[in-house]
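G., before I forget:
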Amino acid sequence: AQSVTQLGSHVSVSEGALVLLRCNYSSSVPPYLFWYVQYPNQGLQLLLKYTTGATLVKGINGFEAEFKKSETSFHLTKPSAHMSDAAEYFCAVSDHGRGSTLGRLYFGRGTQLTVWP
Amino acid sequence: NAGVMQNPRHLVRRRGQEARLRCSPMKGHSHVYWYRQLPEEGLKFMVYLQKENIIDESGMPKERFSAEFPKEGPSILRIQQVVRGDSAAYFCASSSGQGTNWNEQFFGPGTRLTVL
């Protein structure tokens, strides 16, 4: 089974500062990779995803993530934080292809991002 | 184009009662997934369904929990004889099951179950 590790359950940055949220996965085969954002009492919204191709992926709201196979990482970054970015962020992976257990997402425990004015 | 719908948004049950959670996938989506989120934890996979078929239920507790996705109507997650440990947020997601984005999952707002 896949596992996902998000380093740091809480990250605090000042408005305008760089945001870096870390995600590492365990898999012998590179999986599909996702970042989701969850605002209080809401569902998850997809920020970006990596399946194949270019390893630097751009998403919504100015976020991007880079897939590094050698480091089994998919860290999320944003050059300049905004107050509206305060939320919980989840990294997730899924297996390639289709089939019975393929398709399910494995989530990290989440990182709560706080943005200070 | 409406997104994934879940109802109720909040559900309160007493121990021993039954909870029924409903999920209507996005229009055109035929794959449904249920996840559970316990406090301060990530989402845990429970079950993956297609119309009238359970594809993967390896994440479901062995007892009291069941899920269905009938030919007509929403997907239902049913919890019988609820206990306090069932208190959590339950999220449904749907995907098209087709094309290169076959597994891109869109999430509903969740049902927050509280067991008294």
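The mean pLDDT of chain B is 92. The first strand of chain B starts at residue 5 and ends at 7.

More on Monday.
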